[in-house]
Amino acid sequence: MEQEANNNQRSGSCAKEAHALIRRLNQGDAIYYDVDQYENFIDYFIQKNELSNSLRIVEFANRQHDGAIPLWIKKSQIIFNLGQIDEAISLAKHCMKFEPSNAELYYLVGTGYLNKNDGERAKKYFDHTFHCESEHLDEILFNIGYAYEQVLDYHNAIEFFRGAIRNNPKNTNAIYDLAYSYDKIGNYKKAIWAYNHYLELDPYNTSVWFNLGIALNHTNNQDKALEAYEYTLAINDKHTAALFNKANILANQYLYDEAIKAYNEYLELDPESDEAYCYIADCYFNKREYGEALNSYKQAIKINGTNDSAWYGGALILLLTEDYDQCMSFLKQTVKINADISDYWISIGKVSLILNQYEEAEYAFEKAISLSPEESEVWTEMASFYHHYDQTAMAVDTLNRSKAFLSNDVEILYALSAYAYLDHQLNTGYQSLKKALSIDSDSAETLLFEAFPELEKITEVKDLLHKQKTTVKLP
């Protein structure tokens, strides 16, 4: 305890002196410190990520101690972190002439070349670090792995992290970054192994428990993921992301009451989360408690009036409860915020149809088609709209247009055949039905007769279906 107090006292003293030094430099005072003291001040500002102050001190110190290689090394590290990679490489190489066995310099140059996408040169300098430093091999391997990780080369990073762990199975930095790298390449099973290995050494690390939960969720092991989030919260009950993810899992498991409780606990920590209110609304919707769902969507809108998902969710509730005028108001606000989602326009088309607003419905369906011409629903909904207004020929034309995007879509082919027969376009009806049956005859009952029961009265349709059923298919 006494040693810790002394360390804290020295740290506080260094901080005061470092800031005092910056003030004196600003005032142009005469200043002198030895090299070790300057290094302490520089390291302090590096740790605080105040690189401009650390650079200012090192440049001043270099003028006083021109031959002090440690200060030049510090400068190369600082300017590297400031993004001046070429200058940092050049300065580090200059320092190598005086300290040819300094592994840190070779690591810096190797990292610089890696950032310049020169992997071959980077490897040459990284390899040289092993000749300079025989002890702490795991740290060298970890540092090189970290350099690859920073440039998103996770496969090479993994190899070095694995090497570090082989040399020191208790190197928690290497274990953590190994798990993270496996996560990034989507190898979640190995990530889970690495996170669990880390927890054997440090069972109270909240970020590892949390990351383990995410990896487990990726492997659809939701029970274990939930357990990992519970451990995270046992260590830190204010871990908002763990609470949110826990609630999501509970909702996915249809445990809506428990999910709502977890979302509300999250909202106690982040009361301005419109997203959480939307998820709560989804839970109430699935419980068929539409009043509570609508209230939750309205709360989300109150927090964030530009949340189009909340407006749309509210609109769907109002549609279910047959409040069509208010539903349309919500839908119009939805597309005012985000006009690029076809589902929004399809809903406007459907509600316009209910309200007998022909032009508005036609515009909405055409807008949906222009946004998502590769989705069958946008075409079938517009065709249904025309058929509703006894414009079946227009329904046929609409589905014929869809062939440019969806020539073999079974749902569209069955619908096209139905509308064509109903409009007495017998050849189009026959050809479309024949093609639909050749692709998927099993869906005929559902997509044809259930959707268009009037077709059961058309003899040609029944004959074609009977012929399809009795045709012997050769192996």
Would you spell out the secondary-structure blueprint of this structure?
Layout: H1 2-27, H2 35-47, H3 51-64, H4 69-81, H5 85-96, H6 103-115, H7 119-132, H8 137-150, H9 154-167, H10 172-184, H11 188-201, H12 206-218, H13 222-235, H14 240-252, H15 256-269, H16 274-286, H17 290-303, H18 308-320, H19 324-337, H20 342-354, H21 358-371, H22 376-388, H23 392-402, H24 410-422, H25 426-439, H26 444-450, H27 459-470
Helix pairs in contact: 1-2, 2-3, 2-4, 3-4, 4-5, 5-6, 6-7, 8-9, 8-10, 9-10, 10-11, 11-12, 12-13, 12-14, 13-14, 14-15, 15-16, 16-17, 16-18, 17-18, 18-19, 19-20, 20-21, 20-22, 21-22, 22-23, 22-24, 23-24, 24-25, 25-27
Task: Describe this entry's structure for a reader.
By secondary structure, the protein is mainly α. It is elongated.
> What structural class is derived from the secondary structure elements?
mainly alpha
Count all strands and give the number: 0
| H and E string | HHHHHHHHHHHHHHHHHHHHHHHHHHH
Rg (CA only): 34 Å
Counting DSSP H or I runs of 4 or more residues, the number of helices is 27
* Average pLDDT taken over every residue: 90
Brief sketch in words of this structure:
The chain is an all-alpha fold and 475 residues long. It is 77% helix and 0% strand.
